[in-house]
Write a structure and sequence with these properties.
alpha+beta; five-stranded antiparallel β-sheet
Length: about 170
């Protein structure tokens, strides 16, 4: 539970959780205007943005005790007008619990984006860890991608490997 004596910032907790999940992120925003967020670049120009909500909207560097839910948006093009909400944490959310839920939503969005674009990566296989034995899927996925790349009959070797690994 997040308490008033917690010295962490919400941004630090989020950054650590994203890093632990193997998700590359960048600190972004309009810093001079007091707005900051975490940006995650997905495949083919897609983008995910994470920031606080409600009283700390468009901020991430606030004290953990002020956390009031993460807001996560996704854009297939990376353009601001294309962003749609994919996760909205509850008011007065516990920072650690809310961060875990936000990271799960981010992983799901990345997995879906890779799959819908015919792309498969080790990151995609790791995201499927709740459904399959992750080390086996990664090893088998790498083998299948290599096989498909050698077989010129496959127009989309990564997609073939992704489908075969599941």
């Amino acid at each position: 539970m997040t308490t008033t004596t917690d010295t962490r910032t919400a941004r630090t907790v989020l950054e650590q959780a994203l890093t632990a999940a193997g998700i590359h992120w960048e600190h972004d925003g309009h810093i001079n205007a007091g707005a900051d967020w975490i940006s995650i670049e997905g495949p083919l120009g897609s983008q995910i943005i994470v920031s606080g909500q409600r009283g700390v909207e468009c901020e991430t560097g606030y004290p953990a005790c002020q956390h009031d839910g993460w807001g996560v948006t996704y854009s297939p093009t990376g353009e601001a007008e294309d962003h749609e909400g994919i996760y909205s944490g509850p008011a007065a959310a516990d920072l650690d619990t809310d961060t875990a839920a936000a990271v799960t939503a981010i992983r799901g969005a990345l997995r879906d984006t890779y799959a819908s674009n015919g792309l498969a990566t080790v990151h995609t296989y790791m995201d499927l860890s709740e459904h399959v034995d992750a080390p086996t899927a990664v090893d088998r996925g790498a083998e299948l991608v290599a096989e498909a790349a050698r077989d010129h009959r496959h127009e989309a070797p990564a997609q073939a490997a992704f489908t075969d690994a599941i």
